[in-house]
Amino acid sequence: MDTLIAQLQRQFRDYTISLYHQGFLDDQFTELKKLQDECSPDFVAEVVTLFFEDCEKLISNMARALDQAGNVDFKLVGSSVHQLKGSSSSVGAKRVKGLCITLKECCDSQNYEGCVRCLQQVDIEYKTLKAKLQDLFNLEQQIVQAGGRIPQVDI
Amino acid sequence: MALRDLSSSSSSPELHVLAVDDSFVDRKVLERLLKISACKVTTVESGTRALQYLGLDGDNGSSGLKDLKVNLIVTDYSMPGLTGYELLKKIKESSALREIPVVIMSSENIQPRIEQCMIEGAEEFLLKPVKLADVKRLKELIMRGGEAEEGKTKKLSPKRILQNDIDSSPSSSSSTSSSSSSHDVSSLDDDTPSSKRIKLESRG
Hints:
The complex is a heterodimer. Chain A is mainly α. Chain A contains six helices and no strands. A five-stranded parallel β-sheet of chain B has the order 2-1-3-4-5, with helices on both faces. Chains A and B meet through helix 2, helix 3 and helix 4 of A and helix 2 of B.
């Protein structure tokens, strides 16, 4: 007979593993978890929040640049995607990072259509990840509120 | 000298690290990596700010800053304005600061870039994303006084560059393949990457 805590913990474990297996997260996210402890209990949530703010800002900059049809500042798009690639890499946002690499290639070859398509995908992808991580954090909260401990998940 | 003072102090020594990165996310991660490794950390968002903090901007400002002795500078390579490389050069050109070890970080595994930084006097070149193991290793390197242990500890670095080669670098060739430079490296181990070989040579 499973207690509520055990059920929640299993859900958390399964969900975490699925995020890695589906390529949303990579081992850099695991590295971030290592940096979280009693002194800094919300570290991961804080960092990913900053990351999603970065996404919003940089994607908006790139969209604006691409809007100047015929006069697109590909250098600006390039430097913005470089920054986004960097921060996605730092938090372990694997799919976002992959799309940034593709976007960078489109930008380097001044492939306008490619850039527009790719940017749309980046936008969708970061929002998807944001929702999934929110679900994950919610699960953590539920476990703690039920009086349990958040399990260590080995990928 | 600062490093010798640290190692001879009776209390457990704490490195004061100046971390330079234009990315807010990276600054936050780096700060945590360093704090969890028992370092004091100051973060700045640009090379210019770093120079100001170090008192190198020509403005002989508050002497309070001089008391906060920096034992290590870790800087991103690609930054708007002053790049990490330019910051490195300015630090090594300064008689007051050249002894401070400087570590460069970059998300790009570009061999000529790595070589350029090592030749200019960088202590180490780390590939991003930076991990806890990198910081721990870095701390050991610095605490031991860097150069004395160069031959031994530098050998750990090839693993790091290779791993990222496999993980993320789409186009770069193996960093341990023979470089196009004309340095005579025949006397050194095969697994020492060319960047390290050049560094060892230039430090004589």
